[in-house]
Amino acid sequence: MKFTRALFAGVAGLVCASAQAQAVATGAPASAARAAPPPAALSREKASEVCTTAPRSEWFSEEEMKLLAQHRGYRIKTFKIANNSCYEIYGFDREGRIVEAYFNPVTSRLVRQNTAR
């Protein structure tokens, strides 16, 4: 129970950081990132959120997704398909924190990330 609370404790901070990073990447003003509501996929109630409904033929291969995640700084311990619609990674992020991350397998975009303290 303690570990689960630790995983979900930092989600609010990740939402703000993710919105600001997306604003920088897209060239949007920083104020737009602060005003943007958190994505629905990050809410705890929607843990079974669908990442994609695209057919598997359109997905990145598992090897490509692993390479993309490693390039983004993830150290992968476990890689699997979650809910038949997401790629899920268990391992460590760039700062060495324990992480559970879900990626859209068509766009390789981070959908949700839970980090332990």
How would you characterize the overall build of this protein?
By secondary structure, the protein is α+β, with helices and mostly antiparallel strands. It has one domain: Nuclear Transport Factor 2, Chain: A (Roll), CATH 3.10.450.40. A hairpin with a 3-residue loop joins strand 1 and strand 2. The longest helix has 16 residues. It is globular, with a radius of gyration of 14 Å. The chain starts with a helix and ends with a strand. The N terminus is likely disordered.
Question: How would you summarize what this structure contains?
Answer:
The chain is an alpha+beta fold.
The gyration radius over C-alpha positions equals 14 Å
**Structural class given helices, strands, pairing?**
alpha+beta
* Beginning-to-end CA distance, first to last residue: 14 Å
How would you sum up the major sheet? 4 strands, antiparallel
Mean pLDDT, rounded to whole units? 74
Give the helices and strands as they follow along the chain: HHHHEEEE
Number of strands: 4
CATH architecture: Roll
CATH class: Alpha Beta
CATH topology: Nuclear Transport Factor 2, Chain: A
Lateral strand order in the biggest sheet: 1-2-3-4
Low-confidence stretches: 1-19, 31-47
Helix tally?
A: 4
The proportion of residues in beta strands is 15-25%
Overall body shape: globular
Count of discrete domains: 1
Q: Which bin fits the share of residues in helices?
A: 25-40%
